């Protein structure tokens, strides 16, 4: 498969005889897809496929048009620089403080963002949390606490703030709408719209259980949103 | 259909897998030592040195003091007041054997079990998978700082044990038994050769390497089920204990060949 369009963010082509029934998906910048299924473990495999972590198990997947040839080579590390990952449960490292979690991808390799002044990063963090409806007092009280003490909704928001700090071409949300009440869902969609406005050349890929499919009509930053179903391969 | 494993293979294979994974962990730590320049890895390294090294200062000091006082008192009753024999015993028993082994056992009990538990818990909570998804190699982020931190902390703690056991212990013991300290210290310094220090240092680094590599490989290797978290600690301590004794035998034979 070759790089076809500069605006394309992600193309997935699943081969026969693998973990899922064959399907294809192409996400352009400014659009998105929601992948639903019945088994959360299938999402693990799917997300690893998207991230290039399981190349031998699965079919082919490409991040295209991102101006980085290494990202097309299947190298998961190169690919991960273009993917922002947020999850409802396992996305944060529980023995790190919230602030350390937010900066983790920036500080774990040679990314030039790591050298950004702490004050500058803190301003970006405050701005992002403000967009998510958390005031500065809340942020300051939480940043120095362990990530273990966060609610599921707060963990999702923190994961998304981390994506904002690292930058992304594809926002990958693993069951981020699960177990949220309607008010939290509304706040999350509002925040996703803010993120979409801040990163206009990106696409979004969400996973959710079939019976927890959220109403994404308000998610104006990424439209249209395709719906795909993961059917396990028999 | 795959043929069933021969009974001998079933016994040997886990050992081979464990050996392969542990040597892989140790090799990765040294091959990727450069990642310690990144702030996130540095933070883990500092925490490891703090926990394994600095927070173990008190137990190591107490153990060193107890061994020093106890040994000097026993040696006085067994060997009499001859300085040379007492110093030789101190050199062989404390400096070469007790100090490295007891320090390694203290580190193993505190840090080896903690490392294995922590990594196994991260695996159960899906955090190792999350690290991959964030573009962070868990080998670089989790293993390198722990192994390097342990390889620095163990020799430093052993040196403290040796100083306390051979320096402070006899001074305390002289309060209870008749002992002339100045000839003792003078003879002790003359006995210690540079080769002793170098072999001792490599032995202590090896012990640190064994403890951390076994703990990390065991934590990574156990199944991602909560019931395996305490078992990771247990397995790690048992495996390290055996490997430490075997390594000690190896170094004892080096000393034997040299003499």
TrEMBL record, chain A:
Protein name: ABC transporter ATP-binding protein
Native species: Haloferula rosea
UniProtKB/TrEMBL annotation, chain B:
GO molecular function: phospholipid transporter activity
Positions of transmembrane segments: 18-38, 50-72, 98-121, 141-161, 181-199, 206-224, 236-257
Pfam family, any one: MlaE
Presence of the UniProt keyword Cell division in the record: no
Keywords, in A-Z order: Membrane, Transmembrane, Transmembrane helix
Listed InterPro entries: Permease_MalE (IPR030802)
GO cellular component, one term: ATP-binding cassette (ABC) transporter complex
PANTHER family: ABC TRANSPORTER PERMEASE PROTEIN-RELATED, PROTEIN TRIGALACTOSYLDIACYLGLYCEROL 1, CHLOROPLASTIC
Protein name: ABC transporter permease
Source taxonomy: Bacteria, Pseudomonadati, Verrucomicrobiota, Verrucomicrobiia, Verrucomicrobiales
